[in-house]
Design a protein that fits this description.
Length: about 180
């Protein structure tokens, strides 16, 4: 976890210096995005998540700060719905890498494990806190973006046990309006 925190801090510090724009950036730039990837919570009592697709809405403030929310349908470790909220920073310009802090809630089926230490299967949603880095993210001047291979890690819990959480964004396409 210390390495993850250090990597996140270095990534955020790297994003701070960005080239200045000749014109003042817009106060808000809204976009809708489609995403595909993997998301999972791997607690000792159950694994939940999988591969899937989702749709979301994003607001970029002053071409720097990102607020976003999305919903996804995932399969492989059960049929799972994921609701994810994120906030972070991006670098301005055509190459716009980003770093985001995320909160996820996964609801639905899961692959469960019962042992002497875990006699009953936990029920209900699983949650996760994590950091997502998007190093291969490219945006147009109009605000539309393409991102491939977003990597995320964090801490997940099914409220009975806790374990790692992973997120891998294979591709994301955003259309600004």
């Amino acid at each position: 976890m210390k390495a993850l925190a250090l990597g996140s801090l270095l990534g955020a510090l790297y994003l701070l210096p960005f080239r200045a724009h000749a014109q003042e950036p817009e106060a808000h730039r809204l976009s809708v995005y489609l995403r595909g990837g993997v998301s999972a919570v791997l607690a000792p009592s159950r694994a939940m998540g999988g591969l899937g697709v989702g749709v979301g809405v994003r607001d970029v403030l002053k071409d720097r700060f990102i607020l976003q929310a999305d919903v996804s349908y995932l399969t492989l470790l059960g049929h799972v719905g994921e609701v994810r909220l994120g906030a972070g920073v991006q670098r301005g310009g055509t190459w716009s890498p980003a770093a985001l802090a995320t909160v996820s809630v996964l609801m639905g089926d899961a692959l469960t494990t019962r042992t002497v230490d875990i006699p009953r299967t936990p029920r209900g949603p699983a949650g996760a806190l994590g950091v997502v880095l998007a190093p291969l993210r490219f945006c147009s001047d109009a605000g539309s973006c393409v991102s491939v291979l977003e990597l995320g890690a964090g801490y997940g819990t099914d409220f009975a046990t806790a374990g790692p959480s992973i997120q891998v964004g294979l591709m994301e396409l955003a259309l600004a309006f």
